[in-house]
Design a protein that fits this description.
The complex is a heterodimer of chains A (about 280) and B (about 650). Chain A is an alpha/beta fold. Chain A is built from nine helices and five strands; from the N terminus they run H-E-E-E-H-E-H-E-H-H-H-H-H-H. In chain A, helix 3 links the parallel strand 4 and strand 5. The longest helix of chain B has 20 residues. The chains are: A alpha/beta (about 280), B alpha/beta (about 650). The structure holds flavin-adenine dinucleotide and iron/sulfur cluster (SF4) (3 copies).
């Protein structure tokens, strides 16, 4: 998977035609063979753009920054990224007519060591679901998989599951990198930082981290698209995806196979009101 | 520093039998902020309320906790007590130690007492964070919408209109009148149904304060008490009512025959028809499902014969809107379909009919000229078996409840049968005779004595054909033996059930209904005509089976409620509504989709101070908001605050236990 040339051409043309003000893509990090996101405003920098199986980050996260706010943006999205983009559109965070979206029919990306990411091996929607232009040949939807880790979690009782997460989260340093890296965490003032939220306040104790992360995961339940930006950003290397995947499974099973962001205009599972909503499950 | 008063109620024995009330008081006294705690037998009584008023003044209390029954019951009462003592009524918290403790933990007094203590601790903690709130006042639209034009709807409309409040009466069928228009004479006095009903129907049509919209249905209701907006679909009647004089030339000439609903399908009506001679309005409508002109583009005979040119085949459904302040739902009842009674041969034997079919036959204006006949051969029956509780009180096949009116109308049917066919005999299979009501027992006695009707106590087990007779086999419980009656005609008193469209209507109106589809009242004893949704009331059989006197009484009660609601130009509303903190709102609009009352809209505000760019945030209409809190729970930004249930209040509660 190497669309570097195609993307440079498209970006150059978009700038030349005056269709965009900025382009959000990937470039080499400059010291090894890994990449970093880049926000280009100068058409001359287009030549630095790359796109390969090392293009791991979900770029829709940059739509909530001042680099792009109010501007016309060119952007690359893989399958999972496009789902978060769909949610951002539905939740009125970005305007569709300000975006030029290059969708990728994604073959999966690899981590620093070149190993295929776990979420990519289980990916259900590899092709971008929202785009102006598509690169690669679409691969179609795959079946939903509940992997062994999540099955093991589900088998734990409620108390045991809680204890398991409490133990893991003891290593959280409350740096909030997970929140900052999540494209769907865009609140004007995160609830965790509000004064009334005394449960999370004031300290970096294990219990405050537990509450903060639990709340965070619930705010992403039915919305998380499993791009793993958070996990890549976490300096403590916490397996944050376990929380999200556990929620995803419960929601998939209880809300008619709901998967976040796949359908255009569809809100997260918890953000619709129906008398028929199931209420006999615990996350 | 907060100074809280705690008042624990015995509720007679309701609480005191299962919760150790003095212990709860002692527990309350241990809380630092509690400056006064006391118990009393009936806190809601005047002396009880006086204790609260006195303590507020004497101990300079800053908030009050009453540990008693559900706030649904007496929150208003106690709020008023606070007001009377000069305290803001919303500084009250009710700890429900009855429904939430004594009633549900009757087997374990110790645990129930502990839980009551916890509930009090939570309420005290919450009350400390309570803020002074003030009632919201919203303007009211003084017009009532009455849905359904049976006797219930008619009575409610007339009573409201007589108070000079405009009413819009929406009836689904071409005429008002409902089931009562199908009845012959009525128990318990045997006065003629039509004679007492038709004058009221005419009054409706001519009343200056009533707008009658027949052949129509309500398709949407938005808004809130005092300010609803209804959308009403007027079905195309294909007859221009303005020019039609009701002469009837059209339906006399129409060649298409359709089973006549008014006569329970016993005879036929035309494709263009007025349901019955006394119909109001007395104008025909074309039944689009059967008219050949509308189906195949051929015919048009009625149009040829209409001198006024009133027939208009191009007419289409029309949707109109009305702004109203209150709704009375009076959509009546249907008869339960007795098909599950296979052993009776329902559907197989022609001479088994239901009670309304019998009612039509014996009616002077009925399809048989007032004589009961056998559908199979048209002969007048001599031996008629009436079976009560068909479907009713039969959990296995039908429904659990008692249809309430069948005992009475079956007695009436025995009398009517006797009047029409002197040498006949009625056999009545019954489970019990329920004749509670003024003059009702006497009426049943009259049926038994005057007509010689044979009352047999027991369920019928089987009906089978023998020659041209129906053999009805059942139990005579009084004699303890099996009996078999030879019948010419069998009349089933099938259960009274709501129309099957009732649940859909309820959902559209946003009110609740029970498992049978009957609309639910707010409280079975103390709020029998209100629904849980403010400004929507229930009259007649749409709520439960009832006879005419009860229906009329309930309809008048609805009218009184509507008049009360419209007594002022504005209406007071609970201030427990949500507001959006724009600064925190991220504009995701998830709250907009989640609000069950459509109370949330959006607005654009400047992106920053003095900025030209805008951003979209949520905005809540306090008049519409019912304070359900759904938006508060769903807002990830914690940008919404529900007065009376603020985060500090809730967190205080959680921390207290
Ligand atoms: C066989 C029999 C004999 C009876 N005899 C007696 C008697 O002798 N004495 C006595 O006191 N009671 C008697 N009753 C009971 C009596 O019929 C009822 O008490 C009375 O008719 C109830 O009136 P209502 O207005 O609630 O309902 P209904 O008469 O059913 O009126 C409901 C009206 O609402 C309309 N409607 C329904 N759904 C909608 C909708 N979605 N939108 C708009 N309009 C709608 C219907 O078309 C109808 O006009 C008898 C009942 C039966 C079955
Ligand atoms: S990034 Fe890691 S350490 Fe930082 S807050 Fe999130 S989980 Fe905790
Ligand atoms: S849910 Fe909260 S953040 Fe989203 S629009 Fe509503 S108030 Fe604003
Ligand atoms: S509390 Fe929120 S969701 Fe509930 S009615 Fe009010 S605005 Fe709607």
């Amino acid at each position: 998977m190497d669309y570097s040339k195609e993307i440079r051409d498209i970006a150059a043309k978009l700038f030349a035609d005056g269709k965009i003000d900025v382009f959000v893509g990937y470039r080499m990090n400059g010291f090894d063979d890994n990449q970093v996101p880049v926000v280009i405003t100068d058409p001359k920098e287009v030549s630095t753009l790359v796109f390969t199986e090392k293009s791991v980050f979900n770029l829709t996260n940059y739509l909530k920054t001042d680099h792009t706010r109010g501007k016309r943006v060119g952007l690359i999205v893989k399958g999972c990224d496009s789902r978060s983009l769909n949610l951002l559109l539905t939740e009125s965070q970005v305007k569709r007519d300000r975006l030029y979206i290059i969708g990728i029919a994604c073959e999966g990306v690899v981590d620093d060591k070149g190993v295929k990411m776990q979420n990519c091996t289980e990916c259900i929607v590899p092709d971008a679901v929202v785009f102006d232009e598509m690169l690669g040949s679409p691969r179609g939807k795959k079946d939903y998989i509940v992997n062994a880790d999540i099955r093991a979690l589900a088998e734990k009782g409620l108390v045991e599951r809680r204890e398991y997460f409490e133990e893991i989260f003891e290593n959280c340093i409350r740096c909030n990198a997970c929140r900052h890296s999540c494209p769907l965490c865009y609140c004007a003032k995160c609830c965790i930082d509000q004064e009334t939220a005394s449960l999370y306040n004031g300290s970096n104790t294990a219990s405050s981290a537990f509450h903060a992360l639990m709340t965070w995961s619930l705010h992403l339940a039915g919305r998380c698209v499993d791009c793993r930006n958070c996990e890549k950003a976490c300096p403590s290397h916490l397996p944050l995806h376990l929380l999200h995947k556990q929620n995803e499974k419960v929601i998939f099973e209880n809300f008619q196979n709901h998967l976040a962001g796949v359908e255009e205009g569809e809100r997260g599972a918890f953000y619709k009101y129906s008398l028929k909503d199931p209420d006999d499950f615990i996350m | 520093m907060a100074r809280v008063g705690v008042f624990v109620c015995f509720c007679g024995a309701n609480i005191a039998d299962f919760v150790d009330v003095p212990t709860v008081v002692e527990e309350a006294k241990k809380i630092r902020e509690v400056k006064f705690a006391v118990d009393y037998k009936y806190m809601c009584s005047d002396p009880g309320q006086q204790m609260i008023r006195d303590a507020i003044v004497q101990y300079r209390l800053t908030s009050i906790v009453v540990a008693a029954c559900s706030p649904r019951m007496h929150e208003k009462t106690f709020r008023k007590a606070l007001s009377d003592a000069g305290m803001n009524p919303y500084l009250l918290e009710v700890a429900n130690i009855r429904e939430h403790s004594s009633w549900v933990h009757q087997k374990d007094k110790k645990a129930a007492t502990e839980k009551a203590g916890d509930l009090v601790r939570m309420a005290v903690a919450k009350s400390i964070a309570n803020e002074q709130l003030h009632e919201i006042s919203v303007p009211v639209t003084k017009r009532a919408l009455v849905i359904g034009g049976g006797i219930a709807g008619i009575q409610a409309a007339l009573d409201i209109a007589d108070a000079r409040i405009p009413v819009t009466l929406v009836e689904r069928s071409p005429s008002i009148g409902g089931r009562m228009a199908q009845l012959d004479e009525t128990f318990p006095t045997l006065d003629c149904s039509q004679c007492i009903l038709t004058p009221k129907m005419v009054d409706v049509a001519s009343h200056p304060y009533i707008e009658l919209i027949p052949y129509s249905e309500v398709i949407e209701l938005n808004g809130y008490v005092g300010n609803y907006k209804a959308r009403i679909r007027k079905k195309a009647s294909y007859v221009n009512f303005k020019s039609c004089t009701g002469c009837g030339a059209c339906w006399q000439k129409c060649p298409v025959k359709v089973p006549n609903e008014y006569n329970m399908g016993i005879d036929k009506r035309k494709a263009i028809y007025t349901p019955f001679p006394q119909a109001v309005p007395n104008k025909p409508v074309i039944d689009a499902e059967h008219c050949t002109m509308l189906l195949k583009g051929k015919c048009g005979i009625c149009a040829k014969f209409c001198e006024k040119g009133a027939i208009d085949f191009k007419m289409v459904d029309e949707v109109i809107e009305r702004e109203i302040g209150a709704v009375v739902v009076a959509t009546g009842y249907d008869l339960w379909d007795a098909t599950p009674y296979e052993e009776y041969g329902v559907g197989r034997y022609k001479d088994i009919i239901n009670s309304l079919e019998f009612e039509r036959m014996v009616s002077a204006n009925g399809p048989t000229g007032g004589l009961p006949i056998r559908p199979s051969d048209g002969k007048v029956p001599k031996s008629v078996v009436f079976i009560k509780c068909v479907g009713s009180r039969d959990k296995a096949k039908g429904i659990e409840f008692c249809s309430k009116i069948c005992c009475m109308y079956t007695a009436k049917h025995a009398i009517l049968l006797h009047h029409k066919v002197h040498d006949s005999r009625a056999y009545i299979f019954y489970m019990d005779i329920r004749a509670a009501g003024k003059g009702y027992e006497e009426f049943v006695n009259r049926a038994q004595v005057e007509t010689g009707a044979v009352y047999l106590r027991g369920r019928v087990s089987k009906i089978y054909q023998k020659g041209d007779k129906l053999m009805v086999r059942g139990e005579d419980g009084n004699l303890g033996q099996e009996v078999e009656v030879e019948a010419d005609l069998v009349v089933l008193a099938t259960a009274i059930v709501p129309y099957k469209e009732n649940p859909a209507l309820a959902r559209l109106l946003g009110i609740s209904y029970d498992k049978y589809g009957y609309l639910s009242e707010a409280h079975p004893k103390l709020r029998p005509v209100e629904t849980a949704k403010a400004g929507i009331f229930l009259a007649g059989c749409t709520q439960a089976p009832k006879d005419i006197p009860e229906t009329v009484a309930q309809a008048s009660a609805c009218a009184a409620k509507v008049c009360g609601l419209f007594a002022g130009d504005t209406m007071k509303k609970d201030p427990m509504v949500s507001t959006v903190n724009k600064e925190f709102c991220s504009g995701c609009q998830n709250c907009v989709t989640v609000c069950p009352y459509q109370a949330i809209v959006t607005e654009d505000i400047p992106l920053g101070h003095g900025a030209k760019e805008t951003r979209t945030v949520a905005k809540i209409n306090e008049g519409v908001c019912q304070g359900c809190g759904s938006c508060v729970a769903i807002c990830r930004s914690m940008a919404i605050n529900l007065a009376g249930f603020t985060d500090p209040q809730i967190i205080n509660e959680i921390v207290a236990i």
